[in-house]
Specification:
heterodimer; A: Rossmann fold; 2 domains; 21 helices; B: 584 residues; alpha/beta; ABC transporter transmembrane region fold; Rossmann fold; six-stranded mixed beta sheet; transport (chain B); ABC_transporter-like_CS (chain B); membrane (chain B); ABC_transporter-like_ATP-bd (chain B)
Chain lengths: 594, 584
């Protein structure tokens, strides 16, 4: 629903399909086995009617029933039937397994690709549509592998098997029935040609219909406030009618060319067989069993064709879904890469920004010529109103975004010279919105580091004083965290995020202080935890409350991407500039200005 | 099967189509009996060597006519029955939409858009299935099944029929057992899939945290595990799913086997011919579908009933705020007297506002200030009759507002909301939202008043630029100004700006306010804002705090009071100074 239907040319569809097939490669052996089983079932399908033919012609017609051969035939028939059932079960299962594994691989590919993408990609793409690529689109592809491809291969083999059998029994009649193939081919291609248009149209109308409905629901208060209910209803009805008409066209097309048409061709085939044998019978003796076999084969022959035709639309959907998935897999907006020989180590934690200029969109600079130094163990605080560039400084230091102008150095090496793991390990970032994952408190502190012991988890929690609230929880560290931690207050979430960061024992601390309404209870804990965490670590902090950074060694005041004031708290207050005014504002002291 | 009764009204409405469709279906079921019979006759004559060109032509002619007849009938019953089913979907969809347009905001607070969408899509298609495939499977499994068995028993051999059909109930039992198993396992598979979906959702929302801790690899491993779970659960489904086809072919195979063996005996006893055996086995093949259809039917009906009930529950939801009997058609005008002792939002314990009394004279401007949650918006929502159930009375002109028709009341009010919702149509379409027939000049004029004209001309297609979903391609300030233009287009008796200037800069705000003052000399305006500059010029200002009026008066009076308003004013002066980088 969220995507507009992609229009793919026939050539593009073919390309996408070929690329999908490459996913079969790793499963060559299993596929070969499944195909072998499939051939066995086809042989069984062909042999069954053949045995009955033998019975009819050799024994029933002459009314001659020697016990031995009859029992042999019966046993043979039963053996083939039962064997066929068992083999076809495993063959069906095998194909499904292959399809599921292919889709799993595809999902893993997409998911790992997502983790290789840069923040820029996440900025421009709604989360919902990325999730759709990972799960829903791959599910659509699964349907194709499971129901279309298998049916396709199956019917292909069966058609070949039936023709081989018919050729063995009667070359002339088999040659005559070959006429059926171009007729069926014609019906299938005509259907495909028209249905891809009609079906696409139907899908598009449906997504328009749903978009209109969703938008109207979201904007209902506005529609009502402006008394446009009737007009919107008319607009909705118009789309609804178009959707209905598209639905009617779809039903017409399906009725014209699907089952009823195939059944008609089936009747034609029967007429062909009967007239052939009928005419022959006027001059020669005809074996009844052969007629039986032919009629039965023709029955068998049409069943899979019907199935394939019914499923063509799934195929169409899967190709569109696959093209979206491949687009994501080919996405080039990758996370910034580190230099090849990157192996510098972070020892001291000295940070230098040297003339850094940066822009997200390549047009407007959000950081202009930023330079500052944080000596090991020092705290540098960034202040300024929204959009002044504070977060961008952190984004660059953390290597979320690539920058071109200027350089950022840690212990004298450019941040591009470290392995990513080194930065992640030694630089701890606390985000403004502390995101908690589904699981429990302990998992949220430990994250995926399985080597971290329970004691270390507890120590980290104690260090930031998160233990106080955690231990009051009914299940303490095993307390469930659901839906992004919505059951915890933002202050509690922040404390867990602190513990998570401190547990990795970083050399450098980057803090994006929370502004959200933190309850007074946790506020005190947060402030004293912050102070403890900063001790002995170089800290870059975005401060919304100026009171929390009064002891910072360096405070940078940002405005429109530039550092407009710098100094310690006292120095800046004495300057009576922007910082001073911000300070007054926060303390509700207004008399001086007014 | 109750759902067929519930849908009775619809079947009645489309009586012609359904009757025709069902008759056609039955005719098809009957005509289907012909080809096997003809095969039997021809085979008998061939084996007896008595076939002549004339008889062959006769039989094949009948076969051809029957086939063409079936083609036509199969085509038409689909049009009749499936066509009616999508007609039902269309009708219900229309009804749902109409119902949605009548529901008050409290309804939309209770329900999530996603759920409502699900009713209008998934539930609707389940009901459509019931009216289409449900009817088909019901009729077809009974008629085809009945006709075929009758043909076998009456025209061929009833004893053989009984014998051959012995295994068939087993098929029904087994497939319905598989169905139950499948249903259960399918639920687990769905759960696994939704876990995977949640995981992907969470990882993508929390991508920054994952990047921060460099846990991409570990997170992927987690995902791999969950995807393995999906595979495992689906293989369990496949294990049952793969049973269907083999079971059916096994049981049909047994039936065949029985028919051949016993058929042979009946042939030897001269109770039937070889041709009869041919026809008989063909009939057996025809019985597979009705057996399957029967199992299918229960599935469709079960889903259809649940969905139909959900849709009906939604449609039965009462319209909370409706016009009274003999409601006034006339557009309200005059003074507004607002006297509310207490009001709580539905489902909320605390009162949103209490003891709010003020009178707004026609042609005057009222400013309402206060923090978020102080009750500003509640006042407006009551005034527009989006909510009811308050203690007190709100008069517009001479009458309480609920004496007017909702339409008339809202015709008098031009509302600019806080969350500027734009529709995905052109800019011009958005501005002329309430006056679809307005001229381009009028649209331009409104845009100029809202100081958005110049911006619009900069867009790629000017006034014809399409606003993206929820107006993504526009800045907050631009969206706000388009919303203002939209309200001004109505030239309303009462204009309400609900904190609608928050995203425009100070200079634009001033210009817009000046323009409004000049244009709306004798008309009433209410402005809420937490920026005082927006309401400074108002004739009357009320300061809201914790749901009630703290201070009331003109700007000058309130400044002299040196209370809350005065303090807010001082702070905001400072704030704007900071925003401008400290240079006054």
């Amino acid at each position: 629903m969220d995507e507009k239907q992609l229009q793919l040319s026939g050539k593009d569809q073919w390309k996408v399909f070929k690329r999908l097939l490459t996913y079969l490669k790793p499963h060559k052996k299993v596929i070969a086995l499944a195909l072998f089983l499939l051939i066995l079932t086809v042989i069984g399908d062909i042999l069954g009617p053949f045995l009955i033919k033998v019975f009819m012609d050799d024994y029933l017609t002459p009314r001659n029933f020697p016990t031995g051969p009859i029992v042999g035939l019966a046993l043979g028939y039963v053996f083939i039937q039962v064997g066929n059932v068992i083999v076809s079960y495993f063959q069906l299962l095998r194909f499904q397994e292959i399809a599921l594994k292919i889709i799993q691989q595809m999902r893993i590919d997409v998911f790992s690709k997502v983790h290789k993408l840069g923040m820029r990609y996440f900025d421009k793409t709604p989360a919902g549509s990325i999730v759709s690529r990972v799960t829903n689109d791959t599910e659509a592809i699964k349907d194709m592998f499971v129901s279309v491809l298998v049916a396709f291969v199956q019917s292909g083999f069966l058609v070949i098997g039936v023709y081989i059998a018919m050729f063995i029994m009667n070359v002339k009649l088999a040659l005559v029935t070959i006429v059926l193939l171009p007729i069926l081919f014609f019906i299938i291609t005509t259907y495909r040609k028209h249905s891809s248009i009609v079906y696409q149209d139907l899908r598009e109308r449906l997504s328009q219909l749903n978009a209109k409905l969703a938008e109207s629901l979201q904007g209902m208060t506005m529609i009502q406030a402006f008394r446009q209910e009737d007009r919107l209803q008319d607009e909705f009805n118009a789309i609804n009618d178009k959707h209905w008409n598209a639905g009617k066209r779809n039903i017409k097309l399906d009725s014209l060319l699907l089952r009823p048409a195939i059944d008609l061709v089936y009747a034609l085939a029967i007429i062909m067989v009967l007239s052939y044998f009928g005419i022959i019978s006027m001059n020669n003796v005809v074996e009844v069993g052969v007629i039986y076999a032919f009629v039965t084969y023709i029955d068998r022959f049409f069943e899979p064709i019907n199935q394939v035709m019914q499923r063509l639309s799934i195929f169409q959907q899967a190709i569109v879904a696959a093209s979206r998935v491949f687009k994501l897999l080919d996405e080039e907006d990758l996370a910034p890469s580190q230099k090849d020989i990157a192996n510098a180590k972070i020892e001291q934690g000295k940070i230098e920004f040297q003339n850094v200029t940066f822009s997200y969109d390549g047009k407007t600079d959000v950081l202009k010529n930023i330079s500052f130094t944080a000596e090991p163990g020092q705290t540098v605080a960034l202040v300024g109103h929204t959009g002044s560039g504070k977060s961008s400084i952190i984004n660059l230091l953390m290597r979320f975004y690539e920058f071109e102008q200027g350089d950022i150095k840690i212990d004298g090496h450019s941040v591009k010279d470290f392995q990513k793991e080194e930065i992640r390990e030694k630089v701890g970032l606390v985000l403004q919105d502390p995101f908690l994952f589904y699981g429990d408190i302990e998992n949220n502190i430990r994250l995926h580091d399985q080597e971290m012991s329970d004691e270390e988890v507890k120590a980290a929690a104690e260090f930031v004083q998160a233990n106080i609230f955690i231990e009051k929880l009914p299940n303490t560290y095993k307390q469930k965290v659901t839906e992004r931690g919505s059951t915890f207050s933002s202050g509690q979430r922040q404390l867990v995020a602190f513990a998570r960061t401190i547990a990795t024992n970083p050399k450098i601390l980057v803090l994006d202080e929370a502004t959200a309404n933190i309850d007074t209870e946790t506020e005190v804990a947060i402030q004293s935890s912050l102070e403890k965490m900063r001790k002995g670590r170089t800290t870059i902090a975005i401060a919304h409350r100026l009171s929390t950074i009064a002891d910072a060694e360096l405070i940078l005041v940002l405005h429109h991407g530039e550092i407009v004031e710098r100094g310690t708290h006292q120095e800046l207050l004495n300057q009576k500039g922007l910082y001073h005014k911000m300070y007054l504002l926060q303390n509700n002291v207004v008399d001086d200005i007014a | 099967m109750r759902v067929f009764l519930d849908l009775g009204w619809f079947f009645k409405e489309r009586k012609k189509q359904y009757l025709l469709g069902i008759v056609m279906l039955m005719l098809v079921a009957f005509l289907q009996l012909i080809p096997p019979k003809i095969i039997g006759y021809v085979v008998d004559e061939i084996s007896a060597g008595t076939l002549t060109s004339a008889t062959l032509l006769k039989w094949l002619g009948i076969l051809a006519v029957a086939a063409i007849g079936m083609y036509a009938l199969r085509y038409y019953w689909r049009i009749m029955i499936f066509g009616s089913a999508i007609f039902l979907a269309r009708q219900l969809r229309e009804r749902l939409f109409r119902h949605f347009t009548k529901m008050a905001p409290s309804f939309y607070q209770k329900k999530r858009v996603g759920d409502l969408m699900a009713h209008a899509t998934n539930d609707l298609s389940a009901v459509q299935q019931t009216a289409g495939a449900g009817v088909l499977t019901l009729i077809d499994s009974i008629t085809t099944g009945g006709f075929v068995i009758a043909a076998m028993a009456i025209t061929i051999n009833w004893k053989l029929t009984l014998i051959a059909l012995i295994p068939l109930p087993l098929m029904a039992i087994l497939t319905s057992y598989y169905g139950k198993l499948l249903h259960q396992r399918f639920r687990y598979a769905q759960e696994a899939f939704s876990n995977l979906n949640d995981k992907a959702q969470e990882s993508i929302s929390g991508v920054k945290v994952i990047k921060t801790f460099g846990q991409e690899k570990e997170d992927t491993e987690d995902f791999v595990q969950l995807s393995q779970d999906v595979v495992d659960k689906n293989i369990r489904v496949a294990k049952v799913d793969a049973l269907f086809d083999p079971t059916i072919s096994l049981i049909v195979g047994i039936c065949f086997f029985l028919s051949i063996i016993f058929g042979t005996r009946f042939i030897l006893a001269d109770e039937m011919s070889i041709g009869d055996l041919f026809a008989f086995t063909s009939y057996l093949g025809l019985l597979v579908w009705p057996m399957l259809a029967f199992g299918w039917l229960f599935n469709i009906v079960e889903r259809g009933r649940a969905s139909y009930d959900r849709i009906m529950n939604l449609l039965d939801e009462e319209i909370e705020i409706d016009d009274k009997e003999n409601a006034l058609e006339q557009k309200p005008e005059g003074n507004i007297q607002f006297h509310v002792d207490e009001f709580k939002f539905p489902g909320d314990e605390r009162s949103a506002i209490h003891d709010v009394h003020f009178t707004l004279k026609r042609g005057e401007t009222l400013g309402i200030v206060g923090k978020t949650g102080s009750g500003k918006t509640a006042i407006l929502k009551l005034l527009m009759r989006e909510f009811e159930g308050y203690k007190g009375q709100i008069l517009y002109g001479e009458h309480p507002i609920d004496v007017y028709k909702k339409r008339s009341l809202r015709e008098a009010i031009g509302y600019v909301p806080q969350d500027h919702f734009l529709f995905s149509t052109t800019v011009a379409g958005n501005i002329a939202f309430a006056n679809a027939g307005a001229s381009m000049e009028q649209v331009h004029e409104a845009a100029k008043l809202a100081y958005i004209h110049e911006d619009i001309l900069q867009f790629t297609d000017g006034y014809n630029t399409v606003v993206g979903e929820r107006g993504v391609s526009l800045s907050g300030g631009q969206k706000q100004r388009i919303s203002i233009a939209r309200a001004l287009m109505m030239d309303p008796e009462l204009l309400i700006l609900d904190d609608s200037l928050s995203a425009v800069d100070a200079r634009t705000e001033e210009a817009i306010l000046e323009a409004l003052k000049a244009k709306r000399q004798n008309e009433t305006t209410i402005i809420t804002s937490h920026r005082l500059s927006a309401i400074q010029h108002a004739h009357q200002i009320i300061v809201m705090s914790e749901g009630t009026i703290k201070e009331k008066g003109s700007h000058e009076q309130l400044m002299e009071l040196k209370g809350m308003y005065f303090e807010m004013y001082q702070l905001q002066q400072l704030e704007s100074l900071v925003e401008q980088g400290g240079e006054a």
